[in-house]
Amino acid sequence: MKSLTEYLWFETKQRRELVRVTDTVAKLVKQSGVQEGFVLVSAMHITAGVFVNDDEPGLWEDIWEWLAHLAPEKDYRHHRTGEDNGDAHLKSLLVHHQVLVPITRGALDLGPWQQIFYAEFDGQRRKRVIVKVLGD
Amino acid sequence: MKSLTEYLWFETKQRRELVRVTDTVAKLVKQSGVQEGFVLVSAMHITAGVFVNDDEPGLWEDIWEWLAHLAPEKDYRHHRTGEDNGDAHLKSLLVHHQVLVPITRGALDLGPWQQIFYAEFDGQRRKRVIVKVLGD
Amino acid sequence: MKSLTEYLWFETKQRRELVRVTDTVAKLVKQSGVQEGFVLVSAMHITAGVFVNDDEPGLWEDIWEWLAHLAPEKDYRHHRTGEDNGDAHLKSLLVHHQVLVPITRGALDLGPWQQIFYAEFDGQRRKRVIVKVLGD
C-alpha cells in the first residue's frame, strides 16, 4: 500500500472565501503514484469546510447568501470565550469539513463539473487542510 | 489490496427522487472479494446527494418537505447561466454527496435500519454515482 | 494491510447529548498498529450523528439551539409509524453521521482544536458507533 500526506496552508484575504483546490489535489495524487485508492481532503480547523460543487461564480454568491441565512452571524454563547466566529462553526457543520475523492487509474475520478473547494469561514490567518492519499 | 470500481447510472422519471441502492452496493462488495475495507458511494454530479437513512415512505416525504424549506426553489444568481437548478446545488451541499460504508467479514457493516439512498435533485437525465471498494 | 473494527455502545441519560470520543478512537488506532491510514467513525443508527468540532460548552449550546431551529420537533409524517423522532432523522442528515480521520505516523492527524463527537438525537437506549481502522 502507498500513502502520501501533505498539508495545504491558506491565509485568505477575506474573512470568508472559497478556494478551488482540485488541481493541487490532482498533482499530489500523481506524485503519490497511487493508481487505485482514495484521497481525503479535510480541513484541520473547525471554522472551515471542504466540499465538492460547481466552479460557477453566480452559484458561489448563492452559497454565501444561503449560508448567511442558515447559519447567520449573531451573538452566540461561544462568544463568551472572546471568540466572534460562532457562525463559522455552524457553517462548517453544515457543509461538512471533508470529502473523500476516489482515484482510478492514477487520477481523480470526479464527474465533469465536480470541483473541490476549501471554504474559509473565519480567515485572514494561517489555516491548514490535510490531503492524504491511500491506495495501491 | 483489492479494489473494484463501478458506475451506477440513474435517469429518474421525476425531477426529485430517492433511489435505494443498498442491495446494488452490497452485490458489488461481494463481487470485489474484499473482506475488510471501505466502499465509497459518491455522486458524480453536483445536483445530487448520497445519504444513509431510514427506508420509510413517511420519512421520505418529511425529508423532501424539509429540503424544500431549507433550500427552496427560487431565482438564484446561478440561473443567469441558463440553469434553473440552484436549489439542487444547495440540497446537495446540505445532505452531502457521499457516504463511506465499512465492510466487515465480506459484507456491508450497516446498522439494522441503515439504508443507502441516491437523492436526485435535478433528474430526468442520465447521471452517475461511483461505487469504489478498497480493502483486503 | 492492517485493519481493526470496534463497536462503541452508548446509552445516554438525556434524549439529546454530545459525547466526546476522540480519546477512545485514538486508543483504538494505537491498538491497530496502523501507521498510515484512515479511521472511520460512523453512527450505525439513523437518529444520531458524528462530527468534528470544538470542545467548548458554550458552542455546544449554540449547536443544540441551531439544530432545534433548523430541524425542529414537530408532527412529522414519520410519526404515523408510531415513532416520535422525525426531528432526529433530519438532524442526523444535517450534521452527517460519519467522519473519516487521517492517521499519520501511528496517531490521529487532527488539528489542535478538532475533537470527534458522537451526537445523540434520540437516546436513552443502547446505540452503536462503528470505528474501523484501515491502513499499513
How would you sum up the global shape of chain A? Answer: elongated
Order of helices and strands of chain A: EEHEEHHEEEE
Helix count, DSSP H or I runs of 4 or more residues of chain A: 3
Give the helix/strand class of chain A.
alpha+beta
Number of strands of chain A: 8
How many structural domains of chain A?
1
What is the highest CATH level, the class of chain A? Answer: Mainly Beta
Report the helical percentage of chain A: 25-40%
Would you identify the CATH architecture of chain A?
Sandwich
Properties at a glance:
homotrimer; 136 residues; Jelly Rolls; five-stranded antiparallel β-sheet; 26% helix; elongated
Give the topology, please:
Three copies of one chain form a homotrimer.
Chain A: E1 2-10, E2 17-20, H1 22-32, E3 37-43, E4 48-53, H2 57-70, H3 86-95, E5 98-104, E6 107-108, E7 115-120, E8 127-135
Describe this structure in words.
Three copies of one chain form a homotrimer. Chain A is α+β, with helices and mostly antiparallel strands and 136 residues long. Chain A has a single domain, classed as Jelly Rolls, CATH 2.60.120. In chain A, 26% of the residues lie in helices and 37% in strands. In chain A, the strands form two sheets. The first copy, chain A, has a five-stranded antiparallel beta sheet with strand order 1-8-3-5-6, covered by helices on one side.
